[in-house]
Amino acid sequence: MDDTIEYLDLQDYRFDTSQEGGSLKSIKVVDVERADHVSRAAKLAYQKNIVIIDISNANKDPNNTNQIDVSIRKLVKDINGDFGKLGEFYYIITPSDVFLDKKKVRDDYI
């Protein structure tokens, strides 16, 4: 009896991901070190992707992180999207047709 477990490497396969009448939305992760790097995320957000912004490599200067926060808020307002923080170093930005429910799911809600 062969107890070998075989795994599929999904990177080796392409799936039909076409959508009728629109382009495919993705979740993208962008590294932002300074406020002017938010433009990296903006390009993806304008394409209606969900964008996770990682500021863990940003200068820990409060002025820098405040400028990044302000830039992210301006972007979200411009795309009419939604955003939230995921811990200390991550933001998530969604397009206008995706709402972020900011309530944590706990046993009380189920």
Keywords summarizing the entry:
alpha+beta; Cell_div_SepF/SepF-rel; cell cycle; single chain; 4 strands; globular; Translation Initiation Factor IF3; cell division; 4-stranded mixed beta sheet; 2 helices; 110 residues
Short description:
With 110 residues, the chain is α+β, with helices and mostly antiparallel strands. It is built from 2 helices and 4 strands; from the N terminus they run βαβαββ.
Can you tell me about this structure?
Keywords: Cell cycle, Cell division. InterPro entries: Cell_div_SepF/SepF-rel, SepF-like_sf. With 110 residues, the protein is α+β, with helices and mostly antiparallel strands. The chain has a domain at 24-94: 2-Layer Sandwich (Translation Initiation Factor IF3). 25% of the residues lie in helices and 18% in strands. It is built from two helices and four strands, in the order βαβαββ. It has helices at 38-46, 62-79; strands spanning 27-31, 50-54, 82-86, 90-94. It has a four-stranded mixed β-sheet, covered by helices on one side. Helix 1 packs parallel to helix 2 (62-79). The longest helix has 18 residues, at 62-79. The termini are far apart.
